[in-house]
Amino acid sequence: xxxxxxxxxxxxxxxxxxxxxxxxxxxxxxxxxxxxxxxxxxxxxxxxxxxxxxxxxxxxxxxxxxxxxxxxxxxxxxxxxxxxxxxxxxxxxxxxxxxxxxxxxxxxxxxxxxxxxxxxxx
Length: 122
What we know:
With about 120 residues, the chain is of the alpha+beta class. The chain is built from three helices and six strands; from the N terminus they run αββββαββα. The protein has helices at about 5-15, 60-70, 95-115; strands at about 20-25, 30-35, 35-45, 50-55, 75, 85-90. A six-stranded antiparallel β-sheet has the order 1-2-3-4-6-5. β2 (about 30-35) and β3 form a beta hairpin.
């Protein structure tokens, strides 16, 4: 998949979620929800790794399961991988609906954290 086409699809999927917004972070398009909680990062050849990919937070155990299931598509991204984030290659010709599902799960995970961390009004 062409990087500009992949970014357009990722952008559309991410921004379809309520309160989602995009901004550059560390030189890459990233997607956030309120309180600056990041739920997706789009990376093209990050530090020469040769990957066109999305990095997404995942629930406990998901990262390991996906990598074990298909290590040619899923990987542990640098920096955020130890926190459970999953890397999903976009250059493997797999169905986009799986990417949409991962984006939705990442968004919901971060939205739930945002709701949990709200301070009660006095």
